[in-house]
Amino acid sequence: MSTTAHEETLGFQTEVKQLLHLMIHSLYSNREIFLRELISNAADACDKLRYAALDNDALYEGDSELRIEIEHDSKAGTVTVRDNGIGMDRDEVIKNLGTIARSGTAEFLKQLSGEQQKDARLIGQFGVGFYSSFIVADEVTVRTRKAGSDKDAGVEWRSKGEGEFTVADLEREAHGTEIVLKLKKDAKEFADDFRLRSLVRKYSDHIEVPVRMPRVETAKDDDGNEIEGSEVTSWETVNEATALWVRPKSEISDDEYKAFYKHVAHDFADPLTWSHNKVEGKLEYTSLLYVPGRAPFDLYERDGTRGVKLYVQRVFIMDDAEQFLPLYLRFIKGVLDTRELSLNVSRELLQQDPKVEKIKGALTKRALDMLKKLAKDKEAYQTFWNTFGSVLKEGPAEDFANREKIAGLLRFSTTQTDSTTQDQSLADYVSRMKEGQEKIYYIVADGFNAVKNSPHLEIFRKKGIEVLLLHDRIDEWLMSHLHEFDGKRFVDVAKGDLDLGEIEGEEEKKAQEETAKAKESLVKRVRESLGDTVQEVKVTHRLTDSPACVVLPEHEMGYQMRRIMEAAGQKMPEVKPILELNPDHALVERLEATEGERFDDLARVLLDQAIIAEGGHLDDPAAYVKRLNALLSA
Ligand code: ADP
Ligand code: MG
Questions:
Q1: Which CATH architecture has domain 506-633?
Q2: Is it true that domain 244-387 has CATH number 3.30.230.80?
Q3: What is residue 141's predicted lDDT score, i.e. its pLDDT?
Q4: What are the helix (H) ranges across 205-292?
Q5: I need a surface site. Which of 37, 392, 524, 542 has the fewest CB within 10 A?
Q6: CB–CB of 444/473 below 8 Å?
Q7: Three-state helix/strand/coil letters over 20-73
Q8: Span 4-237: which CATH code?
Q9: Strand, coil or helix: what is 414?
Q10: Measured in angstroms, how far is the CA atom of residue 437 from the centroid of ligand 2?
């Protein structure tokens, strides 16, 4: 029997208290997931013991048949989940069942609003784990002992989920963990054999560890009557108990794939798609990769969890093995099982093993192919893109070799749809290119309105030439790593000389040259007036509605990137734009007819306006306002 001693009462970490409170409130309609979480933890604990025992068989303590047992007592209203896995020592119990150690937790909790549905979704993204016990239980008791430790090194943890818990020493014969839930009044339905069996099947068919439940059999006499006192309890395995990825694809249903995803990804929602591959030959591995339906809460955290669950010859090695996928595919979840690595591989060893690079290359290809396939379903792909598009945009910079493939997966806003939704592919764009058009035109700015209304688009709109409208923060950086698609060069319409190539006829070009000649003296006067603030002044034919625009030299960093660098504390060298004037605009005609100080003011106002329209900022905005007001009141 157990003797308890060294009892102490401790408070939950603040974050746990907040999570418990919000979770119980918002996950009420999803209560059954507590069982999935507890089975998932028990299975992980068995995996960990098997791994640790590779080096030290004694850890099994003579009991190497790993298993999970689920029992209930409908009279007492309890459900027990038991495993003979790795177990925990006192420090681990306090840390694992009293705190949340993930980075970004505090920020995550701040997002919760108290609005039930929204919070349920967010908490689902976060993953509730062990604490979900308190959705159905008003008291939880955990008895555990670390495999390989002395019998009196057990720990009993107990809590009502209301801010504190107690831990006490415990003598425990078996290693592993037992969790007893005392069900709340309104959750007694779970202390039911049929209900539990169907939940076990739903949540753990794909888990390799057998999940057993007791079956009570009563002998019958010759007349078919039950013989009193003859009850025999035998353990019966309820789940399939084979690792899902080992089974042939043809025998796995979509529901099984989805259930397994939830176990691997700690997600509540279904995945968007998956790809299951067994590869034999030079490089042997089985992979099962998933695209989640929504972003995890820590997608943009520097040390957010990512990577696949790694198995070597079916033996679990580690969670979150991030070496097998590039950073820009960090949203992919799943399992990799391979015989290429040794069973005692560690994170450090993974970094040095050349086979890891090879498998990474192969998985990257699988993941990109999976996305390409997903793209055939426009609606599903749009969900993917809206969720993970800005992560995928990191791809061309990180993965040179797959640049063209990644480019094919990108989606953009364009002048074709003028919609802020990024839903046009480069292939779409190319298929609509005008006769004689050789390049893919794009423009970058902060925010959709700024990009959509840019003066640089005027000529393109007039001629019906499509332009990609890039308005994400990462876009200028993305484009600096994309040079071509389908053999066509990308051209930033706000940089360098405008050359529409074959799209413009000879006559048009000739007319432009003539205009430029006619305006030579105006250009010279503006240049002298503006002096050093500009690199050059020109007449342009880019504009139809605006009087002027600024253009950056072709290889100059754009305004968006400059702002990002400046925000990061980098001092950027001054950039001198090229000012281009629209010869057909009334203001430019007015300028031509003006002299003296008024000419200087007007020229300067045109320049400043053009910079503002570009999203740049003025060194001396007050001077601009003063000049403009002087012109307005004259
Ligand atoms: P997660 O499983 O995502 O790590 P949980 O809240 O489900 O988060 O569990 C917290 C931690 O508690 C686990 O990481 C594990 O270390 C420990 N734990 C939970 N259940 C068990 C168990 N049955 N056996 C051993 N350790 C466990
Ligand atoms: Mg868990």
A1: Up-down Bundle (1.20)
A2: yes
A3: 98
A4: 254-265
A5: 524
A6: no
A7: HHHHHHHCHHHCCHHHHHHHHHHHHHHHHHHHHHCCCHHHHCCCCCCCEEEEEE
A8: 3.30.565.10
A9: strand
A10: 56
Reported residue count of the chain is: 634
Give 567's contacts (C-beta < 8 A, 6+ positions apart): none
Residue 500: which pLDDT band, with cuts at 50, 70 and 90? confident
- CB contact burial 600-620 (16+ within 10 A = b; e otherwise): bbbbbbbbbbbbebbbbeeee
C-alpha 37 – ligand 2 centre gap (Å)? 5
Q: Which pair of structure tokens corresponds to residue 406?
A: 């990644």
Q: Which atom of ligand 1 is nearest to the CA of 42?
A: 23
CA distance 444 to 471: 6
What does the domain layout of the chain look like in residue ranges? 4-237, 244-387, 411-501, 506-633
Q: Report how far residue 204's alpha carbon sits from residue 207's, in angstroms, rounded to the nearest whole number.
A: 5
pLDDT band at 573 (very low <50, low <70, confident <90, very high): confident
Contact 188, 27 (CB under 8 A): no
**pLDDT per position as a tens digit, 19-32:** 898 888 788 777 98
Kindly give the distance from the C-alpha atom of residue 95 to the centroid of ligand 1, in angstroms, as a whole number.
10
CATH number of 411-501: 3.40.50.11260
Is the pLDDT confidence value at 3 over 80?
no
Q: What are 268-311's pLDDT values in tens digits? A: 889 999 999 999 988 999 999 999 999 888 888 777 788 999 99
Q: Cα separation of 619 and 470, whole Å?
A: 26
- CA torsion angle 541 542 546 547 (round to 10): -40
Q: Residues 360-389: what's their mean pLDDT? A: 97
Read out DSSP for 205-220?
TT-SS-EEEEEEE--B
Q: How far is the CA of 203 from the centre of ligand 2 (A)?
A: 13
Q: Tell me how far apart the alpha carbons of residues 298 and 38 are, in angstroms, rounded to a whole number.
A: 23
Please tell me the residue having the least CA distance from ligand 1 atom 14.
Answer: 96
C-alpha 286/C-alpha 301 separation (Å) is 29
**Pair 50, 316: CB distance under 8 Å:** yes
From the CB of 45, is ligand 1 less than 6 Å away? yes
Pairing mode, strands 333-338 and 308-312:
parallel
With CA atoms as reference, report the closest residue to 174 among 146, 195, 133, 208.
Answer: 146
For the entire predicted model, the pTM comes to 0.80
Ligand 1 closest atom vs CA 129: 7
Higher pLDDT, 542 or 144: 144
501 Rama class: left (phi>0) / alpha (psi -120 to 50) / beta: left
Tell me: pLDDT of 4 over 60: no
Q: Residue 197: what pLDDT?
A: 94
Query: What confidence category does residue 76 fall into, taking pLDDT thresholds of 50, 70 and 90?
Result: very high
Tokens 């090879």, residue located = 358
| Residue type present at position 521 | S
Mutate to test the pocket of ligand 1, among 37, 41, 88 (most ligand atoms within 8 A of CB): 41
Q: Which range, of 55-59, 230-234, 428-432, averages the lowest pLDDT?
A: 230-234
Predicted confidence band of residue 2 (pLDDT cuts 50, 70, 90):
very low
Q: How far is the CA of 37 from the centre of ligand 1 (A)?
A: 9
pLDDT reported for residue 1: 43
Which residue has the least CA distance to atom 23 on ligand 1? 42
- To which residue do tokens 């529409």 refer? 500
Residue nearest to atom 17 of ligand 1 (CA): 96
- Determine whether the shortest distance from the Cβ of 86 to ligand 1 is under 6 A: yes
**Gap between the Cα atoms of 40 and 85, Å rounded:** 12
